[in-house]
Design goal:
Blueprint (H helix, E strand, L loop, with lengths): L2 E3 H11 L4 E4 L6 H7 L5 E4 L3 H15 L3 E5 L3 H5 L1 H9 L4 E7 L15 H5 L5 E4 L6 H13 L5 E7 H4 L2 E3 L17 H13 L3 E5 L1 H5 L3 H11 L3 E3 L25 H9 L2 E5 L5 H4 L2 H5 L3 E6 L13 E4 L2 H14 L8 H12 L13 H11 L5 E4 L3 H9 L8 E3 L9 H12 L8 E6 L10 H6 L4 E7 L4 H7 L19 H7 L3 E5 L5 H15 L2 E7 L31
Helix pairs in contact: 1-2, 1-7, 3-5, 3-19, 9-15, 11-15, 12-16, 17-18, 17-23
Keywords: Lyase, Thiamine pyrophosphate
EC number: 4.1.1.47
Protein name: Glyoxylate carboligase
């Protein structure tokens, strides 16, 4: 075996791990890595901010199910990545961030841009490590990919001192391969107990969390639900685990991203089988109401997740797909299949009656009308990305999702500005997989500007997607949160009729856009944006001016189901 530059071995590892694109920004302390990247077959997109690189890698990973890779140099490049690492950690997204570092001999001397990024990153990663010996580098990268994929997926940070990057090592890629990822099989006695509890319950629910999406368990979920005729709810991170038009779909429970019928059906249930769900506080609300008299079975691949929020009646450590397969096998062996019963009919009754309006024809435009048009214009194969704020809540309440990985949201960390770099990551992931699939970023007017500079990346690399902006000229969710305090402080962000001219911002980046003020014009604008994005291979904005002081219905616990305005009979709406 011949001696080769150690960074060439590292890039060989990336390629063999299935990485076709990395997102980053070169700097002096990471140049040997970039030298190895050149001509390797692994593409690179140069970003305008390292946080943008992490969000791109994050969304690339959510779309492909593989490990995304972001790269930066030393010092502030690494600290700029912390928000993206936190986002991936919170949402269980596999990612590897690579940072350059000052030479080893200078780390204790406060060298230029030398910072202990490993210690900074440790709280928001599964593993943070500095490579101290060049011969360890390819093995550390192998272990990083295995760690990112294993158990509850998440991010890893690898710090590379410049002197380590410059060395040669003995390495033969022909003899190398990815390390095996441990398989987490369910304990069969617990599978049988889970089935006993499901069959004994009168009003059971299946609750699909992000672990169903990440574990590619959506097909098994639908098969089990149909065989046992059990209604299915989803969490925000589980949105897309089942087609929301499926007769067994029972909505979402929660204090924000929820349906009225979802809360009502949950409160009537007597058993919940939670699959890869964290029981996050925006889902549960007040725990005494959420738990009530119902029993819980909690299935999660990470043992320490079970009992973290409250103790379930039964905990099962398992990969979600393997658990569902085992449960279905056990159910079939008992001949437990059954037709729809009174509980399924009751859930369907709630779903048909406890709805929210989305047919508003008033000016200013009401946000639910925007989602009505989005649902009708874009098809089931469209990939949506969205972030945090009132529009995340409206999206959870009103946007229809039919397939896994098509609704991507930074659910737990909620960084403003996530959508534009995420849309780039999704679009790049689809190249060669689903080149004709559409990508839509739903944004707010405030968050849009947090990472707006990444539009330059999309323009540079001909990356088309549609941006739908809900512009209320306010920090809407913060304004709503301030109401109990009797104030309306520092939330108004307009300084002329509309505030920033977002259409001209788009044009400044070589993109295009339109502003909409009438509900009747929304659909035509969305159709125009789809065509314009295809024709120009650039992002296209549809800015929709919505009512300034709109509130979303949500409360302190999931029992707040009576406050929402019901949908009137079809003949009285006056609007299609």
């Amino acid at each position: 075996m011949l001696s080769i530059p150690v960074m060439s071995a590292v890039v060989d590892v990336l390629r063999s791990e299935g990485v076709d694109t990395v997102f980053g920004c070169p700097g002096a302390a990471i140049l040997p890595f970039y030298a190895a990247l050149r001509g390797s077959g692994v593409d690179h997109l140069i970003v305008r901010h390292e946080e943008g690189a992490t969000h791109m890698a994050d969304a690339w990973a959510r779309t492909t199910g593989n490990v995304g890779v972001a790269v930066g140099t030393s010092g502030p490049a690494g600290t700029n990545m912390i928000t993206g690492l936190y986002t991936a950690h919170a949402d269980s997204v596999p990612m590897v961030c690579v940072t350059g570092q000052a030479v080893s001999a200078k780390l204790h001397q406060e060298a230029f841009q030398a910072v202990d990024i490993v210690r900074i990153a440790e709280p928001v990663t599964k593993w943070a490590v500095q490579v101290k010996e060049a011969a360890q580098a390819p093995w550390i990268f192998r272990e990083a990919f295995r760690t990112a994929r294993s158990g509850r997926p998440g991010p890893v940070l690898i710090d590379l001192p410049l002197d380590v990057q410059r060395q040669d090592i003995v390495w033969d890629p022909a003899l190398d391969a990815p390390l095996p990822v441990p398989v987490v099989e369910p304990h069969r006695p617990r599978v049988r107990r889970a089935l006993d509890m499901l069959l004994a319950a009168e009003r059971p629910l299946l609750l699909a969390g992000g672990g169903v999406i990440g574990g590619d368990a959506h097909a098994e979920l639908a098969e089990l639900a149909e065989y046992l005729q059990i209604p299915v709810q989803v969490t925000l991170m589980g949105k897309g685990a089942i087609d929301e038009r499926h007769p067994l779909f029972a909505g979402m429970t929660g204090i924000q991203t929820s349906q009225r019928y979802g809360n009502a059906s949950f409160l009537e249930s007597d058993l919940v089988l939670a699959l890869g769900a964290r029981f996050g506080d925006r889902h549960t609300g007040a725990l005494d109401v959420y738990r009530g008299e119902r029993a819980f079975i909690h299935v999660d691949i990470e043992p320490t997740q079970i009992g973290r929020v409250f103790p379930p009646e039964l905990g099962i450590v398992s990969d979600t797909r393997l658990f569902l397969r085992a449960l279905l096998e056990e159910a079939r062996s008992r001949g437990a299949g059954r037709p729809p019963g009174s509980w399924v009919r009751r859930v369907q009754e709630l779903r048909a009656t406890l709805t929210r309006r989305d047919d508003f024809g008033t000016v200013p435009i009401k946000a639910p009308r925007v989602y009505r048009e989005i649902n009708e214009v874009f098809d089931d194969d469209t990939y949506f990305v969205t972030a945090i704020g009132l529009y995340q809540i409206w999206g959870g309440q009103h946007q229809r999702t039919a397939r896994p990985r098509r609704y991507q949201v930074c659910g737990q960390a909620g960084p403003l500005g996530w959508e534009i770099p995420a849309a780039i990551g999704v679009r790049r992931a689809l190249r060669g997989r689903e080149p004709d699939a559409e990508v839509v970023a739903v944004v707010g007017d405030y968050g849009f500007h947090f990472m707006v500079e990444e539009l330059a990346v999309a323009a540079q690399y001909d990356i088309p997607f549609v941006i739908v902006m809900l512009n209320n000229e306010y920090l809407g969710l913060i304004r709503q949160a301030e109401i109990p305090y009797g104030m309306n402080y520092e939330v108004d962000i307009h300084y002329d009729e509309y505030g920033t001219d977002n259409v001209r911002v788009m044009e400044g980046y070589g993109c295009s856009g339109r502003r909409i003020t009438e509900p009747a014009d929304i659909r035509a604008a969305l159709e125009w944006a789809r065509k314009e994005a295809r024709a120009t291979s650039r992002p296209v904005l549809v800015e929709i001016m919505i009512e300034r002081e709109a509130n979303t219905p949500h409360g302190a616990s999931i029992d707040a189901v009576a406050e929402f305005e019901p949908l009137p009979p079809p003949e009285s709406t006056g609007v299609r």
